[in-house]
Structures are given as C-alpha cells and as structure tokens.
Amino acid sequence: QVQLVESGGGLVQAGGSLRLSCVNSGRTFSSYIMGWFRQAPGKEREFVAAISRSGTLTNYADSVKGRFTISRDNAKNTVYLQMNSLEPEDTAVYYCGASNSPRTAPPILRWNYGYWGQGTQVTVSS
Questions:
Q1: pLDDT tens sequence across 26-83
Q2: Which of 39, 45, 109, 122 is the most exposed place for a label (fewest CB within 10 A)?
Q3: Distance CA 118, CA 109 (A)
Q4: Are 79 and 71 in contact, with CB atoms under 8 Å apart?
C-alpha cells in the first residue's frame, strides 16, 4: 500500500526558499522511484524532478535545474524537494508521485507514476 502525504508548501517572496517533504506510509518506500510534479491553474501537471530508488540518479526539468534539489531518505520513507531562488512562475500545487517502473533511471513522464499525494500549494510573490 502506498499513501503519500506532502507538506512544506506556503507563501514565499521571490528569491526565497522552501523545502517540500513527502512521506510514504507504506513499508516498501525504497522499492519506488519518486518524483515531484506541479500544476499551475489552467495548466497541465508537469514534471519537476525525480530520483531513483537508491538516490544515486536524478532528473530535473530544465526550468528548475540549478535551483531545485531532490533527495530521499529511505530510512525515513521520505522524499524532499529543496527549492531555492524561487520565482513567481514556480507558483503551483506540488504533487509527490511514486513509480514502480522497472527502469533504473527515474522517468519524467506522468503516466509512469501510479500513486499520488494530495498536493501542497506553493505561492511565490513578486
């Protein structure tokens, strides 16, 4: 059973930082590739970052490279998204997803992720 709960969202000024967390209450967290996606009003849910089961491989959307960092702690069943140098364009609901893709490299396409959290709102003011 996979149950994902995100936290850490909020309101921040442009240039600020936030750290999102996503806890998986299931017992097999380390067997899943984990990813972060976001959805702004009126837009499709888009890929942000993903991390392999061991944490050694990561993928990032071009729009967040150099500003966001994804990491995971398998002992705590938690994946993190450290967001620095936030911009108003980063405003969205951020969702955590879990994938049981057989690939080693973390996928970036939404359909690879079969489990989702409820989302956490991130608002960046200019």
A1: 778 999 999 999 999 999 999 999 999 999 999 999 999 999 999 999 999 999 999 9
A2: 109
A3: 19
A4: yes
